[in-house]
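Table 4 source record.
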Amino acid sequence: MISYILPTHNRPDRLAKSLTCIGRLRADDHAAAGGAEVIIVDNASDSPTAIPARLDNGLLVHTIHLSANLGAAARNVAAEQARGDWLIMLDDDSYPLDANFIHVLNEAPQDIAAIGADIVLPNGRREAGGLPEVFVGCGAAIRRQAFLDTGGYDPTFHYYAEEYDLCAKLLLAGHRIVHDDRFRVQHEKVSAGRDMNVILKYLVRNNGWIVQRYAPPEQRITMLHETIVRYGRIAELESAQAGYLEGLTELFGTLQEQPQRQMPPSLFDRFTGLAHARHTLAESPHVAEGTRVALVDQGKNGWAVKQALREVGATIVDEQSDAKLFVIGTLSPGPMLDAYERRSRRGEPVLAAWSPQHISEDVATYPPEPANVGVSSSASSS
């Protein structure tokens, strides 16, 4: 059985659309999973939200009303009451585009605790965020028992980077996390009305907590510095320096309170995506000692792509005109896939540093072999 979990707060219209879309999924598809249920967690909305007791496809809807807004940790309350073996984590503005993900769940070997979706935005681009073994919270399937055993979402995070904390705990417990492009989710994300000062406050504080908790001691100071610099630049671009400075103050005041669960270097390399980049680039026939490479579309954990390229002896050049090969400089799945598709359509010699997999292709090796994303056809002949 599967349990759809959707927290909501003051967005009844968005929730109604998501429920309508879930209600269009066929009952026969849910039967293949042993049935399904929907759990709505009302995160202390200002007024009660009208929620149907049953969707058009017959799925029962359970509603939990909270007296306080718990942020992402509202999902923990739903998980405790859920009956499903798998928790389908959505936001009140996200929903599966089809039921193909049910076959993905049925194929998943036991060591896979979570599966990240291919999440698409209204503008046709993919959702940013995540890493090879870090999913994005508005489109993920998580084994309920693994979720409960690791304590679910840490309520002190409220929002932002809480998925990184949960994924770190899942990895430390011996699980794997994958992405599968057959699990497709639409996220009706709206940027209007978002307070960037609040967002930057949580981003710098929470990501700093992640480094403090899980980074090996020899990497912690460097990565904390990189985190602070990264979000400082974003705060400047978004004119959100006040929120950033508030978050930075909270970060420095709480660093020593963070539980220490540092990962061994090999596990941390998986967590950051470095292990995936190393594997993919070392196995690629298009990258070798001295290959002139330009990093393009740089973003989340681009440093890991750069490090993996240096380890295989590639020569990184600044000018694209000097390069034989373009390598996407981010390990975040959505931006990476968007960049790869855009450049490959133009016929550019482009390579992605890791590839989301079908689980059926992924069970034999770790990290996964490069499959769906690779070098464009023009690079094969260059």
